[in-house]
Structures are given as structure tokens and as C-alpha cells.
């Protein structure tokens, strides 16, 4: 009984610490979703007040939706990683491979693709694993879009997934088939992709469809 009495305060403190951690993560998640909701409200408000027309309103909504589609899985990984790190610190352990800076900024990398209608636009990129543990990566991408519309084209990655040993690098081929029913010659399009496994890395893919 005496031993349990001595352990109780430590257990209570641990529960309090976990509760505080969960509350902080919940506040961060709610804050990010409120920001997106306010963005949609502003778009509708501008349209209702006559400050934008239907085309500009649709374009703004599509851009915001595309941005959220990319950020959403990355933010979930943020919270999971920070939760694991926090619990590990409470237990006096180190969370291997987890980030220790909540809310850290993602690195955005630009990649340019171009080609003519009927061709396959391709580009290569090199991804390096600077960590001391192997990492399995994959890709989650949005469809290509302009300011006015979102197409049905999404980029392909070869290989779509791979495992990188510590300190290694791998060339990834990015491609998209330029279908004349979906894209127009002379236009430029953009897409974004989250690199699963490196949740702080975002790819910004710029596609230029050359004139015939």
C-alpha cells in the first residue's frame, strides 16, 4: 500500500502531462481547420458582395480545396509524430525518427514538366534520406489545375514507393500524359504532392503544355 501511495503522484502527473499534450494537439488541429473554413467563408462573402464573379469564385474555391487536399494528410502526420515524441519524452525515451519541433515548416520543392499534346511530360528528381534509419516513401498528389479549373490529370511517380537506407538517395521519375481532351496547348498547370515518409516535404509540380 505504501509503495502504491508513492507511485500515485507520478502516475497522476503523467496523466496530466498526456492530457495537456492532447489538448495542445487538438487546439492546433482545430486552428488549422478553422483557417480553412474562414477561407471558404471569405470566398463566399466576396461573391455575395459582388467583389468577384462566378469564375473567380470557383477558381478560388478550387485552389483552396487543392491546398487542403495536400496539407490534410501531412498535418495528420505532424500531429501523430509530435504525439509520439511527447509521450516518448515523458517516458524518458527518444522517439527515433520523429520530429521534435511541433509545427515545423515544410520544405517546398519545385519541379518543371513540359511537352506537347499527345506526349508524356517527364522530369526526374533525386530524393535523399539524411536520417540514420531507413525510410519508406510514397506520394499523394492533387490533380493539375489552372486558376479557372481542375483537370482529371494527376502525376505518376516511378517507382510509386521505395525504401531508402540511411544516407542513400534515389532517382524518382515524374510523368503525366498530355491528353488534348483535358489540357490545352499554351496553358500552364500546377499540382502539389506530399512525400509520405518525409512529411515535411511538399512537391510543387509546374506543367507547361507547349503550343503545337
Question: Could you please describe the fold and organization of this structure?
Answer:
The chain has 2 helices and 8 strands, in the order ααββββββββ. The protein is α+β, with helices and mostly antiparallel strands and 212 residues long. The strands form 2 sheets. Strands 1-8-7-3-5 form a 5-stranded mixed sheet, with helices on one face. Strands 2-6-4 form a 3-stranded antiparallel sheet, with no helix packed on it. The longest helix has 47 residues, at 2-48. The protein starts with a helix and ends with a strand.
How would you concisely characterize the structure shown here?
By secondary structure, the protein is an alpha+beta fold.
Based on the model shown, name its key terms.
alpha+beta; 40% helix; 212 residues; 8 strands; single chain; three-stranded antiparallel beta sheet; 2 helices
Amino acid at each position: 500500500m505504501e509503495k502504491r501511495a508513492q507511485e500515485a503522484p507520478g502516475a497522476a502527473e503523467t496523466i496530466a502531462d498526456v492530457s495537456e499534450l492532447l489538448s495542445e494537439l487538438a487546439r492546433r488541429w482545430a486552428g488549422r481547420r478553422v483557417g480553412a473554413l474562414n477561407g471558404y467563408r471569405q470566398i463566399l462573402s466576396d461573391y455575395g458582395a459582388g467583389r468577384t464573379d462566378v469564375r473567380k469564385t470557383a477558381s478560388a474555391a478550387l485552389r483552396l480545396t487543392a491546398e487542403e487536399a495536400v496539407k490534410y494528410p501531412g498535418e495528420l502526420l505532424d500531429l501523430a509524430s509530435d504525439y509520439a515524441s511527447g509521450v516518448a519524452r515523458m517516458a524518458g525515451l527518444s522517439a527515433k525518427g520523429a520530429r521534435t519541433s511541433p509545427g515545423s515548416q515544410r520544405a517546398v520543392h519545385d519541379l518543371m514538366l513540359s511537352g506537347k499534346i499527345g506526349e508524356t511530360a517527364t522530369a526526374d528528381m533525386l530524393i535523399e534520406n539524411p536520417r540514420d534509419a531507413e525510410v519508406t516513401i510514397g506520394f499523394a498528389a492533387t490533380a493539375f489545375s489552372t486558376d479557372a479549373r481542375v483537370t482529371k490529370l494527376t502525376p505518376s511517380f516511378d517507382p510509386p514507393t521505395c525504401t531508402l537506407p540511411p544516407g542513400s538517395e534515389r532517382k524518382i521519375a515524374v510523368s503525366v500524359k498530355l491528353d488534348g481532351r483535358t489540357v490545352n496547348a499554351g496553358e500552364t498547370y500546377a499540382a502539389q504532392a506530399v512525400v509520405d515518409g518525409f512529411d515535411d516535404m511538399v512537391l510543387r509540380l509546374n506543367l507547361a503544355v507547349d503550343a503545337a
